[in-house]
Amino acid sequence: MHLTALAVSLALLAASGSLASPTLPLHAREVVTVTRTVAGPAATSYDWANGATPDFPIHPSCNATERVQLERAFAETIKLAQHAKEHVLRFGNSSAFYTKYFGNAPTAEPIGWFDKVVSADRGGMWFRCDNPDGNCEQEGKQCFFFMKRFIEGRIISRTDGDIIGWGGHWRGENATLETVICPLSYSTRWPLEAMCGNGYTVAGGATNAYWASDIMHRLFHVYNVGEGTIEHYADDYAACLALAASNPEEAVRNSDTLQYFALDVYAWDVALPGEGCTGKAPEGSSSAAATGSATSSASSSTTGIAGSMSAEASSIIASPTLAEVQTTTSDAAAVSYPHTE
Question: Which one of 170, 271, 302, 310 counts the least CB within 10 Å of its CB?
């Protein structure tokens, strides 16, 4: 009896222990995952492109017609500069065009200048159509219309001192980020699609014949693009070739050199592929004697071109000698280009 009672007590004690601390098999256990959100630092609102000005600002003084033409001119300027950059990236200094205009200078700087025309921030710039400085008419002052027109193969240049006006100008100290486009530009500049038409040649024509190259020149004056570094070291075709031979460091920072190069490679690569319209500059310039000594070095830079640039290209590029510089016809005096026009 006592043994039975003891056995029962032990059994009850064992049962109570099992209920107090149940031991379940592993497969019966349940894992519960609890997710807790911990507050962290607030997400940053930084946007590196915030406040950028990717488009060329057109001043309210421009009417709807002028605005449309300027927008097209800006697009063509970017197209011209983009191709000039891509030509250098593609061929480097093995390009006959490159060595012709930049000599043995490293390629990085011209690439950079053209890229700034394409992509530099336009903040603070204005292209305006009014005449705040009175330069569009140049009333009471002698001025020259330097835009060369091609009529029946003859270069016409107005140099008779008439009050004709300017096509536009950088405002300089009056407003360093502003450019004025005068009414004359709208009736004289050609679209890029007319490249090599109207009797135009790169060597014999004006760098401001096309909207694209004219706007490029004006951008080089603005600090956002030219950084106060691009200058007018040489202003005509022959002088630019001479500069490439004698001072490549200045050639890659010369406004007209950059324009001539862009026009020449666009004509050869895009407008008339494999043919272009380099041409020859007219004879009889007063600068021929000063530049003649550089003829051999400038011409020799076009030899040994990589296979992708044909021998025919080299002969066309080298054909204008440094004695053949841009000039006017015999009934007009030779002129030099001011920074404003």
Answer: 310
pLDDT per position as a tens digit, 241-280 = 999 999 999 999 999 999 999 999 999 999 999 999 999 8
Instruction: For residues 200-223, give the mean pLDDT.
Output: 96
Task: Identify whether the C-beta of residue 123 lies closer than 8 Å to the C-beta of residue 53.
Answer: yes
Of the spans 67-71, 133-137, 182-186, which averages the highest pLDDT?
Answer: 67-71
As given in the structure block, the two tokens for residue 56 are: 């060329």
Instruction: Give the span between the Cα atoms of 30 and 192, in whole angstroms.
Output: 76
Q: Tokens at residue 12, please?
A: 């009850």
Residue 64 contacts by C-beta under 8 Å, 6 or more apart in sequence?
none
Q: How many CB atoms lie within 10 A of CB 297?
A: 15
Rg (CA), the chain: 35
Give the separation between CA 120 and CA 101, rounded to whole angstroms.
24
pTM of the model: 0.70
Q: What is the pLDDT of residue 256?
A: 97
- Tell me the mean pLDDT in the region 23-33: 62
Q: What is the mean pLDDT of residues 94-105?
A: 98
Taking alpha carbons only, the member of 157, 175, 203, 192 closest to residue 337 is 157
Q: Are 289 and 333 in contact (CB under 8 A)?
A: no
Helix/strand/coil for 180: strand
- Tokens 């060329």 locate to 56
Give all domains of the chain, ordered by start, each with its CATH number. Answer: 64-318 (3.40.390.10)
- Distance CA(131)–CA(340), nearest Å, equals 14
Report the pLDDT value the prediction gives residue 40, as an integer from 0 to 100: 66
Confirm if 308 and 314 have CB atoms less than 8 A apart: no
295: left (phi over 0), alpha (psi -120 to 50) or beta: alpha
In DSSP terms, which residues pair with 210 in a beta bridge? 190
Q: Are 166 and 146 in contact (CB under 8 A)?
A: no
